[in-house]
Specification:
The protein has 70 residues and is of the alpha+beta class. The protein has one domain: Alpha-Beta Plaits (2-Layer Sandwich). It has helices at residues 17-21, 46-58; strands at residues 5-12, 29-33, 37-44, 63-69. Strands 2-3-1-4 form a four-stranded antiparallel beta sheet, with helices on one face.
């Protein structure tokens, strides 16, 4: 059983990929950047996602949505 999937994470505002990846537990990929929101993707399991969300929260970023795409 493969428990990994690609998660799309939307954050409030414009966020630079390098800023998040500098100290992130997972490598994320910028999908789309707009002034109001930035969309990233990451391929991981659920425990990796939880660690990443904690990291983003620690950076003070505002989470708008998380979607799993298998």
């Amino acid at each position: 059983m493969n428990d990994t999937c690609t998660y799309l994470i939307r954050l409030h505002g414009h966020v630079a990929e390098d800023d998040i990846n500098a100290m992130s537990p997972l490598q994320i990929t910028l999908e789309r950047a707009e002034p109001a929101a930035t969309l990233f993707s990451v391929r991981t399991d659920q425990s990796g996602l939880i660690g990443l969300l904690r990291h983003l929260h620690g950076l003070g970023l505002i989470l708008l949505s998380v979607t799993c795409e298998r």
